[in-house]
Design goal:
single chain; alpha/beta; 24 helices; 24 strands; Leu-rich_rpt; endoplasmic reticulum
Length: 803
Amino acid sequence: MIPVTEFRQFSEQQPAFRVLKPWWDVFTDYLSVAMLMIGVFGCTLQVMQDKIICLPKRVQPAQNHSSLSNVSQAVVNTTPLPPPKPSPTNPTTVEMKGLKTDLDLQQYSFINQMCYERALHWYAKYFPYLVLIHTLVFMLCSNFWFKFPGSSSKIEHFISILGKCFDSPWTTRALSEVSGEDSEEKDNSKNNMNRSNTAQSGAEGSLVNSQSLKSIPEKFVVDKATAGALDKKEGEQAKALFEKVKKFRLHVEEGDILYAMYVRQTVLKVIKFLIIIAYNSALVSKVQFTVDCNVDIQDMTGYKNFSCNHTMAHLFSKLSFCYLCFVSIYGLTCLYTLYWLFYRSLREYSFEYVRQETGIDDIPDVKNDFAFMLHMIDQYDPLYSKRFAVFLSEVSENKLKQLNLNNEWTPDKLRQKLQTNAHNRLELPLIMLSGLPDTVFEITELQSLKLEIIKNVMIPATVAQLENLQELSLHQCSVKIHSAALSFLKESLKVLSVKFDDIRELPPWMYGLRNLEELYLVGSLSHDISKNITLESLRDLKSLKILSIKSNVSKIPQAVVDVSSHLQKMCLHNDGTKLVMLNNLKKMTNLTELELVHCDLERIPHAVFSLLSLQELDLKENNLKSIEEIVSFQHLRKLTVLKLWYNSITYIPEHIKKLTSLERLSFSHNKIEVLPSHLFLCNKIRYLDLSYNDIRFIPPEIGVLQSLQYFSITCNKVESLPDELYFCKKLKTLKIGKNSLSVLSPKIGNLLFLSYLDVKGNHFEILPPELGDCRALKRAGLVVEDALFETLPSDVREQMKAE
């Protein structure tokens, strides 16, 4: 007897796969087991019992028919006559014998085999084997999509993710937070994953619709306080699950191999069912108890005609009818499966009821194989889809990230990162985080918040707790803001800096910051975009005083002109793009500081000369070669700072003497060879930078600059310094390094306020001991070769080294 357990591997798959077995698959599995038992039972009988028993027929001549009629009847009747009863006269029992055939046992066996092969119908012979083969094919069709490499990998991955999502504490927390439902206990999920697919559960599952999620009972109840607690490890595991679900969704939604395979195997089962019903119905009547056998073996046995008894005919006949009933039920179930497959759109799955029930509105609908597996899961238990949907929600993912951030960045850890910025404000820099920690808003002493390379920043209403916040920096961040937070920032924010790669990173709410005083924009913009999209609304910034734009505009946007009535400083760093159409500058009559940096200017813009309130002008990194227009600066009575550095200027015109109000003048990094003596008629100059030029001679008129405090001729070709230089007794910084000087005058001792001296890179052989008279000069402020420093007297060296 072959044990049925040997065939379990054909009907069973991994226990976790049971969640993808709807009620009809479970039901047909049980039917397959029943049909398998019929086949195994029939095969066992075929092997262990005689298949057929035959006796020869003896045909008598016609003339002896009357005398031998009883003999013929005896031949046909295989039942021997009963023995005679003993009588008192004859006490001995007489052995009764049937009709002799003169056949031995081997001949009977030979006859049985020949008649079994020649006379018995093939259906009666092979019925149990056919049942066994058909049942194994049914089992193979039912489970092939679990075994095929192209589909099994997707199914295994899906089941693995599904179980983790179901058990995740974050699922319980998310559902309880957004829907107010009682939390579900994850310990019971294993019981649901491993429960057996009984016929009763299958019948119940048939009533479940994949979209009918409103009737899902709350099966699991835990304490909300427990559900709300999510440690760091659980948070990281949930974060990893979100990433797995994203990648799995992208992979599975690309094709529909699972749906196609399930449809094909169902169609194959229906076709096989029709074939089995057709030929079994026609041939079941061929299973007969009595069989006439006519085989030509008379030369071997002496007989040609035989009457045979098929010993299992009656049993096989009953089994065949029973088998046909099972196959009929199996086929009808498969037909229902086909109806379910084609009547509904199984390649699309909507989470509409989940969205309504949970309140998570951003759960996306899915398609193809992903949708098909979710439909199959709903036939097992819709609760799986509901809990799985949490990991498809971007809102849920953002909440998890926020929770992980809060656990990682505690207030104490954030306070360790506090520092003072260039504006002398207490600043907190946060770089490359996944979001903005809520714990930031617990640091009430914060004055400046700097966020860099952080995506999906949400500024909540709790920002109002930062009463001292005045400055906000957003570098390559996409920021959304709560309405209450915007109201707070409108009142308190003074400085906003935005650095962006994509124009969409410019926050639209920044145009409503009515108390904003300083705005710094850094990013690539075309002039059309800057005019029509981003800078149109600057006119609403009524308190704006400083505007800095580092971009690539070709003209000054009209929006900048619209704030000119209160704009005091404008900085335009144009990254080498040529700036044209500067007539709008004339309207900025209240401008006091102007920077036009790297704008590819070849001449000083004439519009600048109309800015009568201008105090500082910086034309760094342009393409200026001639500055004859400098004479027009005489009309700018308030101009005190002029920076023409990093250009290609070859000479300074004599008209510069008319700029008598200048206090700071920079011509560094140009190509100037000769200094006009008229330059030093600007006797208010306190800062003069002539470094990195080709100057060979310093005019003695430099002694006129009695207010001079900073003088630099670093990296020129000067061979000697005029003694008149030392008449500038207010000089604090003197840079004469990298020249061709060979002697440093002892009169340098007259510079009593000198605190910084750079003489490195010259041809000095000795330093004058009069440096000791410069009491403010210390060793840290003396830039010189160590060997040259040793030429000073020891007392001077000690004096400089002393604090």
